[in-house]
Give the backbone structure.
Amino acid sequence: MPSKIILRSSNKDLMLLVGILSPLQKCVSAIRLLAYGVAGDVVDEYVRIAGNTSLQCLKNFCKCVIEVFEPHYLRRPTVDDTRRLLQIGESRRFPGMLSSIDCMHWQWDKCPMAWQGQYTGGHQGVPTMILEVVASYDLWIWHAYFGVARSNNDINVLDRSPVIDELLEGQGPEIQYTINGSTYNIGYYLADGIYPEWHVFVKTIPRANMLSEKRKNIKKVQGRI
């Protein structure tokens, strides 16, 4: 991949001397910038890389991650994927279930002072961002919507999220299953009680096994992320 080649390449300095920066140095620099949210020149003393080079390594590192994982994660399910998701749901006694949907909160330690009001809310008392995730039981994350302020709730996030746009436009996958003698042609997501009373959401409150199923899937995703 081009971005991988750039990540391994060496540049010349002002004296036309080729710099020797190992791929390990560049990856460590990029990961530290992502983990701590600091400026590019902060990692200079730790990995001996200048600020501009650190930022370039960060861009190339992100490009590599996208190129490697985009074909599998964060994409719409194909016909075969939908069939597999339905088989998994039916094997766990949830016919017609596509995946579980929920929102989780990520603490933002480096939140600017001017933004802390809109990103702080609820019982946590610290700035956080909301991540909406749709994940299957085998931890296949095919939808993620991230960055909404903590002052919003799951409903506000759903209004902005494109997760069910295809279903609203009548372009969803063709599904047919039968429950208690009734035939349905639209799949559903396991969700919390705060979600609206739509056919695409099955609440987990009335039955304890649904609640535990949804929480089990989301906790596995949180632990893996």
